[in-house]
Design goal:
Blueprint (H helix, E strand, L loop, with lengths): L13 H11 L8 H14 L3 E5 L2 H11 L7 E5 L5 H8 L3 E5 L10 H10 L7 E5 L8 H11 L2 E5 L7 E4 L2 E4 L8 E5 L12 E5 L2 H11 L3 E3 L6 E3 L10 H11 L2 H18 L6 E3 L6 E2 L5 E5 L1 H4 L3 H9 L27 H9 E4 L7 H16 L1
Parallel strand pairs: 2-3, 2-4, 4-5, 5-8
Antiparallel strand pairs: 1-9, 6-7, 6-13, 8-9, 10-11, 12-14, 14-15
Helix pairs in contact: 1-8, 2-8, 3-4, 3-7, 9-13
Amino acid sequence: MTTKIYYGKQSINKTDLKSVNDSLKKRMITNGSYVNKFENLCKLKLKAKFAVSCNSGTSALFMAFLAIGLKKNDVVIMPAVNFIASANMAKVSGAKIFFADIDYNTGQISPQSIIDCLKKNKIKKVKAIISMYMGGYPRFIEDLYKLKKKLNCYLIEDACHAFGASYEINKKKFKIGSCLHSDICTFSFHPLKSITTGEGGLITTNKRSIANKIRLYRSHNIQKKFFYWDYSVNDVGFNFRLSDINCALGYSQLKRLNQFVGKRKKIYDIYKTEFSLESQIKIIEPEKNTNSSYHLVIALINFKKLKMTKSAFLKKLIKKNIYCQFHYIPIFNFKNFKIKNKSQFTNSNLYYDNALSLPVYPDLNIKNVYKIITEIKKLIKN
């Protein structure tokens, strides 16, 4: 039986199983010791003052919006190409959402695309900008931070792809999640991300007031009083907690983060080298003075020149048991976010037509990497 090669897969070992098993023996399997251990290790790794775990990257975004006081008719600017969660959570908050076109060669919004969005829509006041590091490749950080200060708005990093990534400014190194050039950073620990907690998310910030609000939103907004059975509730709250079981897995996984990223980079380097002489395919590269998490290996392929649609290309690869993916359908294509003039998003449309995510995960067999490369080269040359 031929093995199917998926674009992503979690990596679980005996240490992970031992950690989860240990959590099950504790008195508390929610709000227990592993929650604190995991959050503290995240703070240490990311160099942030505060780290709050939650049950998903979507919950992380929603609580970030609540923490900055996002309300009806507040303006939020975000990439036109991203996972639907950021737009959904902003919409639930009642905000006015404006999509900025992306940079085709990176799949990300740039300061210029935000400025163009402001001018085109005659926007005078912005509540928040949502940046997103497509594939785990940090970009435009210093310039986005300057723009945030100029507009006097919040900058929230949707770093669900970028756990383990870093960047340099003026020869100083910073971790994505340190929040030294943003207000809040959100992460996802979905099984296909850099590390996994099964499902889960994280919010980092250096602002105590924001961290305190998020901790309250995470657990029904309950504020304990002197006696453990007595409490007050002064605002809305939710059950967005991450259990001790999930955090035990995350705690074990986090200790292997560098190993995971290193294996992903090795696979990325093979793709980059092998496709370097192919004029019809371009692998998106990390920006100078940054280190990627290599969550995705993104290939830009001119399918129009190949006289083939992306869907047809994917179907041919599936016949060879190779399952690629693409990230993402532009948000303005969905019913709740429909825009009449889609042609204004030239780069977003072209990116969606051409971008393909190649298989990459720590346990991917190198022989299978070369099989993927061989099959793609055949399709490009035929």
